[in-house]
Amino acid sequence: MKRTFPWPIALDALALLLWGLMILRYWWTGRLAVLLHPDYHWLAIGAGWLLLLMALWRGAALLWSPKSLNTPHIALLPRRWSLAVLLAVAAFGIIYIPRPFTSDTALARGIAEPVALTRSQPRRFARNTPPEERSLIDWIRLLNVYPEPDAYTDEPVNITGFVIHPPNWPDDYLLAARFVLTCCAADAYPVGLPVQLSGDREEFAPDSWVNITGTMMTDTVDGQRRLVIQPQDVSPVPEPKNPYEF
Amino acid sequence: MLSLFALAGAMSQFNQGLTLFLSLLVEATPFLLLGVAFSSLLAILVDERKLVALTPKNPVLAAIAGSLFGCLFPVCECGNVPVARRLLMQGAPSALAIGFLLAAPTVNPIVFWATWVAFRDQPSMVFWRVGLTILISVIIACVFSVQKDLRPFLQPAIARQLLPPEPEPTLATATSDSPLLTRGTYLLQSTGTVKLDQPLVSTLDTAVLPSATWTVKAQAVLEMMLQEFRELGAVLVMGSAIAATVQVAIPREWILALGQGPITSILAMMLLAWVVSICSTVDSFFALSFASIFTSGSILAFLVFGPMIDLKNISLLLTTFKSRAVIYLFVLAAQLTFVFTLAVNLYTSW
Fold first, then answer.
1. How far apart are CA A232 and CA A224, in angstroms?
2. Which of A80-89, B204-213, B320-329 shows the lowest per-residue confidence on average (mean pLDDT)?
């Protein structure tokens, strides 16, 4: 009797294997940081290994008992469809390299308006840290609690962020921005501080990363009184391993 | 030149959508696996009859017990219908079964944890979600408990396997206790007599493999996990794709206009919950992507209403309940969710 190859079992095993590999590959290549808050990396990595184990178990059935137990089950989607969806997404996810959000996204989410500070309640309060040690999000949280820009005049500042060119701003202004994450990229929201350059902002391309040192001052940008960085030095830096702040 | 810019913008939007999509998938997969593992383990290993025997008979207490049962059965809304059906067939009061049906997908440790992870900045969301779900489930369960005999609400195949409700105690009970004289329909076979019109559970054990060895049980658990993962994973993929598309493709002004109104935001999120049918163990991540724009009450409405009734679980509910009962459940759940979350929007500053 001719024995047919058990395709359903083989495809199950392949789907599980690809899903596991997709997640673990993001971990190995360091791209998991683009997708998730570091606190939850272990969850995703654990799920990746579990999927690989399930793939092994399913693959073993190919060798020893190529028949599947049919437990009663109410299916919403035909089995073939759901399998096809899982396989297609995993195959794509293994090839595709997720990229952090860009200045376009930040502008689309209304970062240029001063009201767009942060929606989250501050988890720690940075007033006690020396100003030059505050990160971008520390500054924004501080402004959220006490928004008067004059209160920070002449305080030293040292932050890293990516460059945004808000379209309505004069050519010597750019926005240094970061995305803030509480759980995963789905809840990322942008925060930023205006920087008044001595030259043209075209020197720093949008989405390139810069480290800025300087002092704080108050200025009017696009008709709004705002806290602005007056830089002593703006130097290009490589994209940080973790592009988000928390 | 202009078209080049448009193309670059579109590419950037596309990349943003893909990053969103993958981040939702990668964050939700562990919780989906956990939910699938628990529900498979329980389906194979736990005997609900013992639990049913322990539950109170008072409808309100039974409703509360039922809505808390989810802590013991961490199933999402795809696993709760089969469990509720088993509970009914094992003689559970209707308040218990309905309370469980509505609350179990939300009131359980896995969903609690997932919601807490997603809404770390708003921990009150977790408590509102669980509290409101219990409240609504108990109310609906009490409404259903007025109907003492649930059989007219059930699909005929299931109703046949149910006991009629216990009759009110009368003086003439002594005669009916005789083990020799019982009425009913019997199948006479050479191997013995099978009573046909008694509840199925007392003839067959509904636990899938009662006397099987551990290896067979483990095999069955894994098999079921895989089956559920295949199906719910596909639904998760589609839900994540919808969430990512909505965030990227729909103009922000439209969403802002819809999401800031206290009434429109709730209606929009309830409709979304119904259509997207995303599993309750992972729906908080989905909701998270709307949390910055939509009112808190509407996010709550999504998290409370979605696990109770959605497009996917209506087809599951119809395997057990008649369409009339499903409509009652749907209308009651929708109205209560709307009223309570509107009150949250209007009367709390949260």
1. 23
2. B204-213
Q: Residue A98 is nearest to which of B22, B243, B316, comparing CB atoms?
A: B22
CB neighbours of B195 closer than 8 A, spacing ≥ 6?
B184, B185, B186, B203
Best mutation target among B14, B19, B224 (most A Cβ atoms within 10 Å) is B19
Query: What is the pLDDT averaged over residues B339-346?
Result: 93
Determine, yes or no, domain membership for A2. Answer: no
CA of A73 vs chain B CAs: smallest distance (Å) = 8
> Do residue A237 and residue A123 come from a single domain?
yes
Give me the half-sphere count of Cα atoms (radius 13 Å) on the Cβ side of residue B303: 37
Q: What is the pLDDT of residue A209?
A: 94
Q: For chain B, give the percent of residues with pLDDT over 90.
A: 19
Whether A189 and B234 lie within 8 Å, measured CB to CB: no
Q: Is the dihedral of CA A30, A33, A38, A42 positive or negative?
A: negative
Q: Is residue A200 part of a domain?
A: yes
- For chain A, positions 46-105, list CB contacts with chain B under 8 A: 46-47, 50-51, 54, 57-58, 68-69, 71, 73-77, 79, 81-83, 85-86, 89, 93, 96, 98-102, 104-105
User: Considering A95, A125, A147, which residue would you say is the last residue of a domain?
Assistant: A95
Looking at the structure of chain A, the number of domains it has is 2
- Contact pairs from chain A to chain B, CB under 8 Å: 155
Domain extent, residue A56, equals: 7-95
- The ipTM of this complex is 0.87
Question: Which B positions 49-108 lie with beta carbon below 8 A of chain A?
Answer: 78, 81-82
Cβ atoms of A208 and A152 within 8 Å: the answer is no
- Do A40 and A140 fall into the same domain? no
The residue among B296, B308, B242, B316 whose CA lies nearest residue B272 is B242
**Residue from the list A86, A108, A109 with its beta carbon closest to the beta carbon of B230:** A86
Contacts of B117 (CB under 8 A, 6+ apart): A40, A183, B284
Residues A120 and A240 in one domain: yes
In this structure, the answer to whether residues A116 and A207 fall within a common structural domain is yes
| pLDDT of A120 higher than 60 | no
Same domain as A116, residue A235: yes
**A170 shares its domain with A125:** yes
Whether residue A1 is contained in a domain is answered as no
Task: Return the ∠ at Cα B227 (arms to B226 and B233), rounded to 5°.
Answer: 80
Alpha-helical regions (H) of chain B: 2-45, 48-54, 59-68, 80-89, 94-103, 109-118, 124-145, 156-159, 200-203, 214-249, 252-260, 262-276, 283-288, 296-308, 311-317, 323-347
Does B222 contact chain A (CB < 8 Å)? yes
Q: Judge if A113 and A44 occupy the same domain.
A: no
Are residues A111 and A91 located together in one domain of the fold?
A: no
